């Protein structure tokens, strides 16, 4: 019998809160009927929605919480006011005390990360958690991290991200030995920021069996799917993710207005509609909804705050998949293998090479 | 009579060198018949091409150069071997000594920037040059800088980029008072890297008449055209530019494969072809080919190394436009106005605010 999987949901998170969370859970339960849920939220709001969604009611337990974190709360404020008692905190805490296998929230990213770090703590040997996104590419899907958990990263932190992302690629996109690239402004070894070049040297020397280090990749390699895992620090990762989302929207909008110009193009559109529908499905941001917090002693998935029930369902199913595929133990094994390799053959500390700069 | 405009072209730059440069110049001369050219390159290669393109021959002077910079030369190597004598250097030097109004090269970016800095020097009061790209948006075109001249930038350098980009927006995209935004990972004033927040405070306080400071923008604002000028440092700018190029290609490729799936969608495509042609034209990277080096005592345009004659013609025409619209004197005026404002009401040095971080 497969293991029973339980997810804890912050029922109050997101722009529309429980109104999206409960119907989203309903959709997820159709596709993952064995899933069990713990819903944290204001019973006065959530219970009527459960009455209207009997499938969710049957699969879940509702735990009343007086407090909810607001979408514009600052992380420090959310922690001060919402620790121990908010729906967000309690959903995370359920993971910590073993009542749930992963937590899902569409609430404010900064608050969720602050609470997740405070409650779950980072894994032994990992300094910083990362937010990993699943990025649709020409070859399928890639993992991109960090997409904004923190800004800046040193070489060792980038190496940690490579290990975390490699484990996630094995667990979620089903590659045996994922390829890992470091996002940079050129593919030559002398290019870019010193931290990235040093991380490249460490990865090249580490020869971990769990992934294959590809080298540097550039911005256009992400969508091309050149590697399974793209490693970057949170500032550039966030800019890349949002720029790609914006560009996809822009191209779709150009196409719409070009099609609307004449009767001929509109009739052509109707005939080619199955193709446009396939494209829309392929680019649907709801399908790849869900940023995964990696590097913590527990799994937390951040759903987009503005998503609808379908999008929230994707985030729930992503959590389900990661638990089913044992992401946490894969991460644990890979981290242990890396640390062991370090102890046995200590890696010489990266020597600074002069950056190529005009005189 | 309008001023005679002369551009100097590095005839040997780019993946295919003179084979693209001379036919590209030919296309540009059809659209800008008053243009005059100085072509720097190996006469044995360039002369036969001029013989085949009489329009270019009639409008240009060929200056023989023995040396050409290779596409994979390191900047320092290019400077050592190509200074004073390479086609790239001499095209830039023609701008310095007043024989040309701007230089255009499809050669190696690092070498071109190194030579341009060495030969032309940065403008008084500007520490670092930037590469500005013209980015097609939903609202028309925006200027994005720095797209990779240097990595990292402090608050004052970001302010310089804002002034340079504002002048370019007035000269090239024809906005009277361009709006300027700082690229960041959130729009709230407390978000992001300290340098960016400090630049935001400086720009808010400077109240320059030449542009309007909008605030922070995110990755998806670039394609939306939220502001006329997007200011960022060269690492994030390069990642954003290449990610957007990659995403546009990816969407086009998804669309092609979706259309090829059935006879119905293929017939629909044929009917809607004018719309697809319009889209292709809109997204044609050759139309927006040409990175502009800003902040130097002279104008240099970098054409994409892999472009064709049509793309190289766009870079030449961009140079023509910038000279015709007096970009350099607009930059000079705006810089002078900013320095004057600084002297009259010295801006208090940005006080560091604590970054919002989880405890």
Architecture overview:
The structure is a homodimer of 359-residue chains. In chain A, 50% of the residues lie in helices and 16% in strands. The termini of chain A are far apart. In chain A, strand 7 (179-183), helix 8 (194-206) and strand 8 form a beta-alpha-beta unit. By secondary structure, chain A is an alpha/beta fold. In chain A, helix 1 (18-31) crosses helix 13 and helix 7 crosses helix 8 (194-206). Chain A contains 14 helices and eleven strands. Chain A folds into two domains: 1-125 and 295-327, Isopropylmalate Dehydrogenase (3-Layer(aba) Sandwich), CATH 3.40.718.10; 127-293, Isopropylmalate Dehydrogenase, CATH 3.40.718.10. In chain A, strands 3-2-1-4-11-10-5-6-9-7-8 form an eleven-stranded mixed beta sheet, with helices on both faces. The longest helix of chain A is centred in the last third of the chain and has 26 residues, at 234-259. At the A-B interface, helix 4, helix 6, helix 9, helix 10 and helix 11 of A face helix 4, helix 6, helix 9, helix 10 and helix 11 of B.
